[in-house]
Structure formats: structure tokens, C-alpha cells
Amino acid sequence: MYQATITKREAGQRFDKYLQRILPNAGSGFLHKMLRKKNITLNDRKADGSEKTVVGDCVKIFFAQETLDKFMGRQSDQSVGNDGLIRQQTPQDAGFTEKSERTANAASGTASYRRAYGMFTDISVIFENNHILIADKPAGILSQKAEKTDISLNEWLIGYLLEKGDLSEADFSFYKPSVCNRLDRNTSGLVLCAKTLQGAQLLSVLLKDRTLHKYYQLYVKGHLAQEQLIEGYLVKDEKQNKVTIRQAPCKKDHNGVPHQTAGKHDKTKDGKAAYIQTRYKPLRIEQDKTLLEVELITGKPHQIRAHLAGIGHPLLGDYKYGDRAWNEKYRRCGVQSQLLHAYKVIFPPLDEPFADLGGRTFCCEVPEIFERVSRLSKRGR
Fold first, then answer.
1. Which has the closest alpha carbon to 368: 120, 139, 126?
2. What is the tens place of the pLDDT at every residue in 163-180?
3. Of 133, 196, 253, 303, whose CB is crowded by the most CB atoms within 10 A?
4. Domains and CATH numbers, the chain
5. Rounded to 5 degrees, what angle do the CA atoms 161, 167, 168 make?
6. pTM, two decimal places
7. How big is the CA angle at 24 (ends 21 and 26), to the nearest 5 degrees?
8. Per-residue pLDDT tens for 286-298?
């Protein structure tokens, strides 16, 4: 017999998916047959595999030791307690088969994670609970790896949790903490991270449903005097890593705020262009530029940069979509890439276990370079 208790790392997944992870050599059909026969139980009751695991759930598997060893992929002379129960084991002390050994080997190398945590000392934690972490990422750090040799915020996150003792290598076989919304390397600000599977599922739903509101601050060329919602269609060129925007005609909404209307379809009929929405509000006009607050309603690659450039107001420091000659004037302030900062997120009302996030607003300060740019405008040139 095998007995285990579901931890917070394992919670939130379907019970049959959990079983496939601890019994990697058993087929899904066999596992469902064992569930029907109550040879596998959840909280001492019959289960069908569709249940969502919860912290504290008790899992029992009534197999002979030889059968357990076969499906877990370990040596038959391990892990029998004094009471005759076979306890849940970590990859380090179980003799796994080739499939499980690959998982164990991948999980065993924590050096890169700890190195990332030691390197990125200027990343700060804005909020953290059992499931979610919100980090303030400086410009110049990748959110996730682009190449195998990269070190990113994702590695920092795992290193941070390992250092705190909130994560162990054994947890990797069930869920590996990850970044859930990516910022470009040279975009700074708030990044949402999932510490657990439940946290990842929540953030995925909020981002997909667009009920989590994300706001940026940035400078654009020229003067913008009124709030506006702009819409259109975005097409990405994967080879050049660049997008183009097809704009939509401009109208006014029921509040009198100008906006463009492209329809409500996520893609065009040919499936090549994604529907996008970007709302901006002027915060301050300074000489040759405007400080904007931008709400990213849809989240597509380079959306803010390309969308604002498409209406004739490119971002300061953006050499891909912007005005190179204008950007060069601000190099004396240290502007070398797009000046774009994700400074605020607002969560919708949420139930437990996320009630401490529900309805809350999280902000981080804009980088000091924004103030340098503003001072230059005040002095004149």
C-alpha cells in the first residue's frame, strides 16, 4: 500500500494527472480501471480522476509492493516503513526508470537558479502569498529564457524560493514556478509569477478573460491631450521579430471618449492578424513629448510600441518602431532602449484561497531615468 498527503505544490490539478506523475509507468486506462475498483482512493472514497486535488487530501493506492515498484519505476527493496506502508518519496531516494530519471536529473541542477538569485539583486518582491508572487523587474533582464544559456527572471524566481526554503527539488516533478506575463527585456516593472499550479491557473484565467488590468507609463513623441481607446489588428513577422498594425476607423464611445472600432473578433478571417485594444491617458505634456498612462487591454507582442507608433506617437527610446533622430536627443539622459514601465496591476474580486488578492491594486515606482528625462525638458535644450 502507498499513502501520501497532497501538499500545496500538488494541489489544484486533476487527480488522474497527479496519479500519472507518481505512477509514470502505468497507462491512463489502467489507472481509471483501478479507480473504478477502489484500488486507488481519495480521502478513503471512490474517485473518478476528475477531482481537483486539495491540500491535505489523502491518497491511498492498494497495490502489492511489486506492482507499485513496477509502475513507480523503482527498485523493489526500497521505501517500506516499519508499519508496512510505502511512503511518498523524492526523486533522490527512489530508483526511477529512464523516464523518471530524466525528471530527477532535470530537477537536481539547482545551481543555475541559485546563481540567478545571487546575480539579480535589484529585483524586488512587491507582493507574495502561498500561490502568487509579484516582482518588480528592472530593464535589461529577460522575463524568460530565449536561449538555453540565458538566465532570466524565471530562474531568479526559482532560486528565490529555493533560498527561502519554500521549494525543493522534489516539488519540480509536480510543478515548477514560472513567470505568467512576459515583459520585453528592456521593459521594466511588474511581472506576475505563479508559485503553485493553483496560482498559475488563476493568473491564466484572469489574463485570458482580461479581468486583470495592467497599466504602463511611458513617454511618446508629440502632444496628446485627451484619453483615447485605439483598436486594430496586429500581424507579427516571426523572422524579423517585428509587428505591423492595421488601424481601425475612429468613433466615440458612450462616454464621449474617442476610440477606434475594429470589431470584436480576436482574429481576421485569414487568421493572420490578432485584434488588439490599447487605451491611453495623458498625464503630463512636456515640450516635445507626452507622459502617458497606457492600459494594455489585449496583450500581444510589442503591442504598445507598435500601436502608438502607428498613430504617429512613437515611444521614447524605441529604435525598432520609433524615431531614431528624436531618440538620440535623449541619450544624454541614459535612454538607450524603449522607456516603458509596467507600473500598476488591478485584480478583480476573488474568492478563497485568493481573497487576499481580490480587488487590490499593486504599484511600483517608475525608474529614476523618467525623472532625468523630465528634468531635461524643464531646462530646455
1. 139
2. 999 888 777 767 889 999
3. 196
4. 2-101 (3.10.290.10), 109-209 (3.30.2350.10), 214-379 (3.30.2350.10)
5. 135
6. 0.73
7. 120
8. 999 999 999 999 9
